[in-house]
Amino acid sequence: MSSRDRVLGRIRRATAGYGAAPEPAVPRDYLRVHGVRTPAGTADLLAAHLAEYRARVHRTDGDGIAALLARLLAERGARTVLVPPGLPPYWLAEARATRVEDRPGSDPYELDAVDSVVTGCALAIAETGTIVLDAGPGQGRRRITLIPDHHVCVVRVPDQVVDSVPQALPLLDPARPLTWISGPSATSDIELDRVEGVHGPRTLEVVLLAGRAQ
Amino acid sequence: MSGTFMGMPGMPGMPGMPERSDRPDAPELPATPALPDFPAFPDAARQAVGDPVLRANLRRATHTIRDKRARAVAELADWDRLRAAGKAIKDHTLRHLDRYLVQLEEAVTAAGGTVHWAADADEANRIVTGLVLATGHREVVKVKSMATQEIGLNEALEAAGIAAYETDLAELIVQLGHDRPSHILVPAIHRNRAEIREIFAAEMGRRGRPAPEGLGDDPRELAEAARLHLREKFLRAKVAVSGANFMVAETGTMVVFESEGNGRMCLTLPETLISVVGIEKVVPTFRDLEVFLQTLPRSSTAERMNPYTTMWTGLGPSRGADDDGPSAFHLVLLDNGRTDTLADEVGRQALRCIRCSACLNVCPVYERAGGHAYGSVYPGPIGAVLSPQLRGTGSAIDASLPYASTLCGACYEVCPVAIDIPEVLVHLRERVAQGGPVTREGIRVRIRPARGHTAERAAMRAARLLLDRPGALRAGERLLARARRLRPRRLPGPGRAWTDSRELPQLPAQSFRDWWARERGDRA
Ligand code: SF4
């Protein structure tokens, strides 16, 4: 007998006692959203919760984004910046840092040598202070937001922001690789002191970009 | 068939050893293999109680997490409803576990993954070792996984000439310190910063990049040393081993919650990813995650959300062709005593556990005894009910674990999937003391009542430990005394919520204190 059959057989014997007893339905009466907010209020909550996790939050619009990103990279002293395919070119129009294309086949050592990475996101969740990446346009492969020490993530406000986790899941495609990020990498393993940045980026900057996608 | 190995050896000749069933055709089970002694809970706990540094570390840690958690939970007005939903989702899944595992297997396979089934620890270790050897590589990076600790995978890999590197900071501290984890969430909670500095300075160089010269004991510096030490391993790693917090039957999606990014490193950089996951971790639908994404982080690290959660489905839509993640994915589905636990109508609720560790932090016994006293990778209240079910009650430690509690009910109160740990503890005490039918390795057997006074002795020693520390017992014992008078009515005060939602467990005829008084009186 294969182990598959053995394990499934054990399960069937173990659960036989349930018989035809009626089964209660899973109660779904929990809230879809916690609180009533305007779109602006939702964006404010996202900003507040991100900041609580020590992400740096900035706000701008289509006219200001190129200057803001150029400034953030310059302040960091970034000489190189990773650019995923599909990132709107005007975002980095004023940046001095040398662009490094994300391409399949680049090995982790190459990525380790890059200073910063700029991406968009799939969506952001205000109640938990979370951004979600799904490797879509402007986001690139999972590894590019992991290895460089500085990640700048642009969130379009309000159309990429939802209030809650239950609102977020139906918008995501589970077939795609999903990375949920809530603040920079952190550990509390040493005497419960929180330290930012162990293996993932030590600095996460989130840019809330007002205005809808063109 | 081999015995269930859970990171610690068993002992023969103890209460709860299986004997011939009343069914004439029932085979006699082999005895738990004789291995070196492991002390029963009370003996191991006594050591911890006598260690002031350990106790201070534990106390501070559990109280800090406990208070933060209460605030994080209070933020959600629908916490009770989320808890009820989480419980119901898990119960529903367990009831139809065969169907959901088959569905999961199909979904993972369709997405380019390979599914393996392991009935016990030995088989899981053989599968993983074989998969690693087949890659031609001789080292693996690991992200914290209790399932692989449970089966002793690192030791099995080492025996096959494969080096396994733990990458979670706490696990690294434990591994470099030649130590065992003492907490589900913060496994090195028993170590303070000075001890960690010592371990890093002495051991890092022997396993790779040494600690920087003049390393201090600031947590920031220590974390930086770990970052540098592990980064060289992440960048060159070709094979990774992980666990998973959830698996979605409908889509084949695997989910890992973490904080440091070591999980993301292991899950995305290597060419081959091998995930070893207990069969009870499956949930039916992608939507079900909306419950656990809200309850697990708040219950566990007291955060609205943990820094990183990774979800992946097989090799992704392009089946690995876009180089985003591993090009080979293996899922090893682990039984190792879980189906035996499922066969127990009272005890099976322990399989709902999502390993948040909230029950550890509120437990007065854990706070004093420390995680090592539980003799398994699952410490605290959940360990006290899970280990004797996964492993059977045949060893000294497993027979004593159901007594390692004051039955105060705090663990049930905090549990985000509403596992009635006190009820299971009482049930397991009965099993140790009175024997009865159980399932071991899929076969229905009847275990004898504990021989002679063995069970009583196990209980007695646990009672003595607790009674010698009046603070540890007071809350629970008071509740018990009241419960005895009032049963089956509702409990007053802090016990009310406890009885609101369920029947009180059958209580022992005597309280610990009465029992202790009698025993001590007899001896005097
Ligand atoms: S038993 Fe409940 S509280 Fe304890 S670790 Fe499991 S889920 Fe958390």
Automatic annotation (TrEMBL), chain A:
It comes from Streptomyces vinaceus. InterPro entries: FTHF_cligase-like_sf, LUD_dom, NagB/RpiA_transferase-like. This is Lactate utilization protein C. Pfam families: LUD_dom. Residues 112-209 form the LUD domain.
